[in-house]
Amino acid sequence: MSEIVLKGVPAAPGISIGPAYILDKQELIVPQREILETEIPIEIARFEEALIKTREEIAVLQKKISDDMGGQHAQIFEAHLLVLEDRTLIEDVIRQIRSTKQSAEFVFSGVLKKYVKVFSNIQDEYLRERTSDVSDIGRRVLKNLIDENKLLELDHLNGELVIIAHDLSPSDTASMFNRSILAFATDIGGRTSHTAIMAKSLGVPAVVGLKDATLRISNQDTVIVDGRMGLLIVNPAPKTLEIYKSEKSRIQELRHRFDDIKDLPATTLDGHKIDLLANLELPEEVPMIRQHGAEGIGLYRTEYFYMNRVDLPTEEEQFVAYKEVARKMAPYPVTIRTLDLGGDKFISSLQIPRDMYPFLGWRALKFCLARPDIFKMQLKAILRASVHGKIRMMYPMVSGPGELRSVNKILTEVKQGLDDDKIHYDTDMQVGVMIEVPSAVMTADLLSKEVDFFSIGTNDLIQYTLAVDRVNEQMADFYEPYHPGVLRLIKMTVDAGHKRKISVGLCGEMCSEPLQALLLIGLGVDQFSMSPVGMLQIKKMIRSVKFEDAQRLARAALKMATAREIEELCKLRLAELAPNILNPEK
Ligand code: PEP
Ligand code: MG
């Protein structure tokens, strides 16, 4: 077997080496097998046993997910159970076993295909979305019917594996939490897609946008995932393996090299302090965040709460989750971002056609304004939780003061309701906005008068400024954080915020990249919020440079014309100012 090197988009740093497991959603091929008249009851019994066994498996899986991650995540499987209990489907299979005298697996796979076809052609988007649940459950039943049941399944995995998938859904990545997954690699996705963000919070290397990796790898092939360079090496030659093994141990040794500064402030040599906060996707990450010495949570992406389930989260559920996070992080602040639905963050429990959610579609506040019932429920939960710690709240994707006023009006109504019911909340809770679209930058002077803080979301600001889809691997080379247009917008936002003396933070992926972080310090960003994994490296960088040098770098960068020149300049300066920072982990 010869070595194959596949190039993708680096999504989460680090190196992993191990056997591949293809998270395969394709159909199983079921050979035709005729049965005798006398075997009919046996086949029917086998089919019924397979259904029971599958139900048991789902129950175990549900319990595991519920224990590991909380009850609401386990509800992903409710739809699966409904399919298993569908009388029409079951009776159809039994009838056909009798009439066609074919094996249970052959009949079932035929009936299943028919169902999948019907579901995938349904007009109603919500029901169409259920197609993958139907195929998923079908595969599980088939595996319990087919003897050569040797295929690996994600929920039975106990060895350490590299997960290879066409795409990973939020429920796939969430169910990897607390598992011994070595790394993952996907055919599609860009640097800031939710899969990349999730990989970082799980602390595993990832490469996305590999185009056809799933077709070029077999289960159990040895693979190397190089999350720094965005490479997936299949069946590595002994020499390659040797190089990567020593590189991996070198990285491992380096991993703890900054642990000694965990409790020290992120202050530059000339005394300029940057607040270092963490991004949070799942409440289960809080202990890890504390371990990395974060001074709070700068972005709590609450969409994950809404995603892995078949219904909407209740106010009470949200209240309990927000309260717990706030309590565990106290006295540090927790910045809860209100629902940012849309783009790559799709919520299946709402029966809204998916094509209404593209990046320029019905997203974030536009959705919340149209569905005040859902929005109010979240605002109420946040406000109620605000007395249990230090909660700040921010709105995503604000386009300008008009939209801000509309959502603040809803906030006032919710506060009024709580006052009427004599329910306590923090009346001084800070409310900020994310600056993620160019119109918010252009109106930042106006917005700054009406909010307590800004948080720049560069993941989106870059895509909306450069007209480059952030999750499209074909566009990865055009997605330029160093673009002069992007840097100028950041500078304008900082200036507008500082003029009104409000804090300007940044919570996109840019601030976890040392070169870009140096530039951001120079541009005047006060606070970084990032995945905790790279936090100490950034702190070390901050503690190794002078603010005035970073400012000089930013001034020079703002005069340059291309992203490439700016990146080169940053590399040069960081190598001069803090040569110990650029390490193999990125
Ligand atoms: C951003 O856009 O930079 C951001 C932090 O938000 P998200 O990645 O969740 O869209
Ligand atoms: Mg965003």
Task: Describe this structure as you would to a colleague.
- By secondary structure, this protein is an alpha/beta fold.
- The strands form two sheets. The protein has an eight-stranded mixed β-sheet. It has an eight-stranded parallel β-barrel with strand order 9-10-11-12-13-14-15-16.
- α14 (315-329) runs parallel beside α16 (372-385) and α22 packs across α25.
- Residues 148-154 have low confidence and may be disordered.
- The protein binds phosphoenolpyruvate (PEP) and magnesium ion.
- Magnesium ion is lined by residues 396, 436, 457, 459-460.
Write the layout of secondary structure elements.
Layout: E1 4-7, E2 9-12, E3 15-23, H1 40-69, H2 71-74, H3 78-84, H4 87-100, H5 104-121, H6 125-129, H7 131-145, E4 161-165, H8 170-175, E5 181-186, H9 194-202, E6 206-208, H10 213-216, E7 222-226, E8 231-234, H11 238-255, E9 275-280, H12 286-291, E10 297-301, H13 303-307, H14 315-329, E11 333-337, H15 364-370, H16 372-385, E12 390-395, H17 401-420, E13 431-435, H18 438-442, H19 444-447, E14 453-456, H20 458-466, H21 484-499, E15 503-506, H22 514-523, E16 527-530, H23 535-544, H24 547-558, H25 563-577
Parallel strand pairs: 3-4, 4-5, 5-6, 9-10, 9-16, 10-11, 11-12, 12-13, 13-14, 14-15, 15-16
Antiparallel strand pairs: 1-8, 2-6, 3-7, 7-8
Helix pairs in contact: 1-7, 3-7, 4-5, 5-7, 14-16, 16-17, 22-23, 22-24, 22-25, 24-25
The structure holds phosphoenolpyruvate (PEP) and magnesium ion.
